[in-house]
Write a structure and sequence with these properties.
By secondary structure, the protein is of the alpha/beta class. It is built from twelve helices and twelve strands. It has a seven-stranded parallel beta sheet with strand order 8-7-6-9-10-11-12, with helices on both faces. Strand 1, helix 1 and strand 2 form a beta-alpha-beta unit.
Length: 312
């Protein structure tokens, strides 16, 4: 009899179709009646960002063998509870590296070059004014990028930024051997020297509100701050105060706490905060790469070794 697997969020059809040929696949959101009916019999769960796998869910899934997270972070999965119940957690840590790095570079470079588009006919004075308004103060070789967290994404960003001419500093909990021409420094030095700071730490509990008022006080008053890691890494109120007081500074945020953001989100409508709806991973290639977590789900169900099991 084919094992029952529940898919709670959208995956690329090619991935869902593949899993459906191997298992009895049911696609239904958490909270639906169908999900509640199937959960006691399910041996596998295929999830993405917004499904919370907690103790309560696991208590109602006595046959569960594997949780597959289509993505990198597994902070929406209670790893300790899974370990206690013998549930294997798999994910796709390499799936969206290029996508996220491309997003950071694209938005960062667009922000650095103070570009103004022409949308109509202009007289000479207006033409000259547009050109003057587009003056960029620093070229890439004169700009320092600081990266906090030098894992797969942070190190790839550092390597590519270095090739573009940026001076790259990074800070990580580990002593990194392969630096790609980037310099490992202490947190204080990175915050003090960096013109741009990009966050790429993992979702461990210790990183909650890592970027707080004390950290922002140590940054340049005209810093560009970028977060594509986790929403809860940043104290949104502290960042709001910093941006209000340092109007030359700016922020690019793709992840938020909570998601979706609500009308009272403090960073909303700030002129120097650019907010995106968690889209750094949104390329077709990255989506399909993340969706192939279904292969590791099936490997576990077949009592085979998965490629990317989370250490619990």
């Amino acid at each position: 009899m084919a094992p029952i697997v529940i898919q709670t969020e959208n995956l690329p059809p090619v991935c869902s179709d593949w899993l459906a040929k191997q298992c009895e696949l049911h696609i239904c959101p958490v909270g639906s009646l169908r999900f509640q009916e199937l959960l006691p019999e399910a041996e596998g769960l295929a999830i993405r960002t917004y499904t919370q796998v907690d103790k309560n869910m696991l208590d109602n899934a006595p046959k569960l063998k594997v949780v597959g997270r289509a993505g990198v972070g597994v902070d929406n999965v209670d790893l300790r509870a899974c370990k206690e119940r013998g549930v294997v957690v798999v994910h796709t840590p390499e799936a969206n590296t290029e996508s996220v790095v491309e997003f950071v570079l694209t938005t960062m470079l667009a922000k650095l070059r103070n570009l103004h588009c022409v949308s109509g006919g202009l007289n000479q004075k207006e033409w000259d004014s547009f050109r003057d308004a587009s003056m960029t103060k620093k070229e890439f070789s004169e700009t320092t990028l600081g990266i906090i967290g030098f894992g797969r994404i942070g190190s790839r960003l550092g390597m590519m930024a270095g090739q573009l001419g940026f001076k790259v500093l990074f800070n990580d909990l580990l002593n990194i051997e392969e630096t790609y021409g980037c310099s490992q420094v202490g947190t204080e030095q990175l915050l003090f020297e960096s013109d741009i700071i990009s966050i790429h730490v993992d979702g461990r509990h210790e990183n909650k509100r890592l970027c707080n008022a004390n950290m922002f006080r140590q940054m340049k008053v005209n810093v560009l701050f970028i977060n594509t890691a986790r929403g809860f890494v940043v104290d949104a109120y502290a960042l709001t105060n910093f941006l209000k007081n340092s109007t030359a500074a700016s922020a690019i945020l793709d992840v938020h706490d909570p998601e979706p953001i609500t009308s009272d989100y403090p960073l909303l409508h700030l002129p120097n905060a650019t907010l995106y709806p968690h889209i750094a991973c949104k390329t077709t290639t990255a989506s399909i790469n993340m969706g192939w977590v279904v292969k590791d789900i099936y490997s576990v169900l077949c009592d085979e070794q998965p490629a990317f099991a989370v250490k619990t």
